[in-house]
Design a protein that fits this description.
This protein is an alpha+beta fold. The protein has 15 helices and 20 strands. It is flat, with a radius of gyration of 38 Å. The N terminus and C terminus are likely disordered.
Length: about 600
Amino acid sequence: MKKMMPGRNKPTIKHKLIVLVAGHLLLVSVLVYALLFWFQSVLEEKISALALQTMETVVGNVEVYIDNTVRLSNTVASDAGLNKQIRDNPDFADPRSMWSLVQILEKLKSYSITNPFNYSIAVYNEESGKVLSTSDGIYAAPVEQMDWAERLMLEEGKPIFVGAGLAGVVPPYAQGSSRSMISIVRPLPGRERKNILIVNSDKQVLDLLIGDIELFDGTGIVIGNGEGTVFYRRGSLPSGFVSDSGRADDAGALPFATVEYDGEKYIAVRNYSDTTAWTVSLLIPYDEIMRDVTRMMNASLLILGGIALLMVLLFGLLYVQIFNPIKRLIKGMVMVEKGLTFHPVEIKRMDELGFLQRRFNDMVLNEQQMRRTLLEEQLHKKEIELKFLQSQVNPHFLYNTLDSIYWVAEQSGVDEIGDVVLDLSKFFRISLSKGKDFISIRETVRHLEYYLRIQQFRHAGKVEVVWDVDERLAEVEVMKLMLQPVVENAIIHGLERTVEACRLTIRIRREEEWLSCSVEDTGIGMDEEKLKHLIGEIIQNEDPSGSTYGMRNLYQRLQIIYGEDMQFSIWSQMEEGTVVTIRIRLSRLGGGRLEDESHHRGG
C-alpha cells in the first residue's frame, strides 16, 4: 500500500496556513457584514415604526377635522326650518323659488362662518340639477358626471359620504376647482331623498393638518380615496409611485414595505383611516436612510483590507519560524512509518516543537485514546438525546391525565377533589387554546371562573367573586391570558394578606369606543408611595422586582398588541383595596359585532 507522503501534489503546511488565514479573513468578513446587515434591518424597522407613528398622527389630525366637519353637517341637516324651506321648494329652477332660495342661502351662510376652513356649504337639488352654494351662488351641476350623487341617493345605509375631487360640488369656474375640494355629502331628510347637503373644504387644509414632515430629504406623502384615486400629493415623489390612472402603487396591505421606483429603492409606509376610508402613504428614500450604513460598510472594507495585509505579513514570518523544525519532524515520522530504525532528530530549540519530537510516541497513543473517548462521548450524547426525547410529554397528556384523576375522584365519592381537578383540566385546555393567541371574552370569563373556583377551594369562604360582564362583548376577541395575571396578583398581594373575607369584582364593560376591563379587590391595598413605586416598575421601565415581573410582562404585551393608546391604570388605598383597569379601543379588537341592547352577567 502506498503511503501518504508530503509532496508536490499533497497539501503542505504552507498551503494549510494559507487556507487558515483566508478562512479567518472570510469569517471576519462574514461576521462584520452580518452585523451591518442586522443593523440595517433594525434601522429599517425603527425608521418604519417612526414613519408609521408619524402617519398615525397625520391620520388622527385629518380624522379630527373630518369629524368636526361631519358634526357641522349633522347640525345643518337637523335644522327643521331649513329642511322645511328646502322641501317647500322642490325645484330650484322654478322662478317662484327665488326668494326662498335667498333665505336658504342666508341660513347656510350662518353655519359656514363657524369654520374658517370651510370653502362653502351647498345643497344639490336633483329635480333641477342645480346647486345652491354659499360661495358660488346657484349654478348648474354637471349631472352626467355626478354618479356619486346617484349612488348616495340609492344607498339607504350610508347617510354620510366623505369624498375628494367630487364632480359638481363647486362650479368649474370657481377659484378652487372640484379637484381641490374635500366634501362631506349626505342626503337631507325627506321621503324621496331629492336634496343633498354638501360641505366643502379646500384641499389646502390638508397642508395645515399634515404639517412639515422632515424625516429625511426626499420624503413624499400622498392621500388616496377608497377607490385608489390619489387626490393629494406633497413632497418629492418618483414618477412611478402613482400610475397614470391615479391608483396607488403596489405596496400591498402591509403597514410598510421596501419598494422600488424608477430604479431607486424606497420605504413605503401606509395608514388607513376608518373615518374617511382614505389611505395615507409616506415614501422615504432608501439611500437617505442607509447613507450612514453605506459609509460604515465602505470603512469596513478598508479595515478588512488592512487586516488582510497584516495577516499575510505575519503568515510569512510564522512560516519561516516553524518550517525547518517541521521538516525535521516529518523526516522522523517517515522513518517510523517505514519501520526504519528511528534516530532522534537533533532539536536545536526547546519549545513546543522540540517537546513534540520527544513525545511523538506518546502523542500517537494519546490520539488513539482521544478517538476512543470521543466516540464514547458521542454515543453517550446520543443516548442522552434519546432519553430526553422519550421524556417529552405532550401538553394534552397533562389534562387528559387530570381528566382521568377527575373520574377516579368521582367514582370514589371525593366530589370536591374531582371538581378542583376538573376545573384545573379545563383551565389548562383554555390556556393552550390549540395554539391560538386570541380568545373571546366568553372564553376569557370561563377561564377566570375555573381559576377562581380553584382559588376559592384553596381559600374556603374567604374570597367572594362578583361578575359584571357586558354580554354584548361575549364574542369580542382579546389577547389570551389578559386578565388572569391581574386576578392572580389581586389574590396573592391583596386578598391573601388579610384575615377577613374579601370581595373580588371583575368588570368587563363597553365605554363608548373603549373596552374597559377592571379587577377590584377589597384587600389590604397600599399607600401612595408604594403605589408610585409599583407603577414605576410596571409602566416606567424601572428595574422590576420578582413580584412585578408578571404585571410588567403583561403591560409590555398589551402595548405591543394594542398600541400606545392602550390605557393601563392602578388605583389603591390602604385598608380599602386596589383596582387595576385596562382600556383598549374597540377598533383594535376582533371577533363578533356588538349589539345595541346592553345585557349584564351577574355572579
